[in-house]
Amino acid sequence: MNVKKPADSYTMMTELVLPNDTNVFGNLMGGRLMYWMDIAAAIAAAKHCNAPVVTASVDNISFENPIKLGNVVHIEANVTRAFSTSMEVHLKVWGEDLTQQYKYKSNEAYYTFVALDPNRKPRQVPKLEPVTEEDQRLFDGALRRRQLRLILGGKMKPDDAAELKALFIKE
Ligand SMILES: CC(C)(COP(=O)(O)OP(=O)(O)OC[C@H]1O[C@@H](n2cnc3c(N)ncnc32)[C@H](O)[C@@H]1OP(=O)(O)O)[C@@H](O)C(=O)NCCC(=O)NCCS
Predict the structure, then answer these.
(1) HotDog ACOT-type domain spans which residues (predicted)?
(2) pLDDT tens digits along 6-49
């Protein structure tokens, strides 16, 4: 199986916030943004593994700044680390006011996708090889984030999360 680089899965999605996308305050609804993020992340994961993928989990998302009606939304996504059948995708979201000519950060998030075979069973994905220092930082952190999300999802015992525990407990 080919080894992939983070840039191989790089995905950029651009959307325009229209009236039907907003809440009563004229800001983009969180649910609509998470829907777009899910699609951008799924495309990045599928670029990495060249197979159909499903969303396994979404880490916490904090909305730092509202995105206004009429502004443009930019969603950047790429795979940070591949495990056996799952991949972590990092997303960065900005709003842009084209009239005022300024761009502002909205939020960041991590989504996890699993590749499925024709029988809809999890299938192996290519390994990911970090290239830049930033790739390496995200790659290293992905192991601890995975342990935390598996514990929260009831799929791992806290005692088995060695790398996560090492952050808090010095032997
Ligand atoms: C995600 C799913 C495929 C996992 O299947 P499963 O039978 O539990 O399989 P496994 O326990 O063998 O786990 C498979 C992989 O999923 C990962 N996984 C399972 N639950 C997870 C969670 N809550 N968060 C992150 N990863 C998870 C496992 O770590 C494993 O990854 P690895 O092979 O890289 O180690 C299955 O739960 C599913 O189909 N969920 C519904 C997906 C869906 O409908 N999403 C929304 C619409 S796209």
Answers:
(1) 7-119
(2) 999 999 999 999 999 999 999 999 999 999 999 999 999 999 99
Could you give the domains of the chain?
6-130 (3.10.129.10)
Q: Is 152 in the pocket of ligand 1 (CB under 6 A)?
A: no
Round to whole Å and give the CA distance between 101 and 30: 23
- pLDDT tens, residue by residue, 60-74: 888 889 999 999 999
- Establish whether residue 122 lines the binding site of ligand 1, counting it when its CB lies within 6 angstroms of any ligand atom: yes
Give 126 Cα–ligand 1 centroid separation in angstroms.
17
CA 86–ligand 1 middle distance (angstroms)? 7
CA dihedral 138, 144, 146, 151 (to 10 degrees): -160
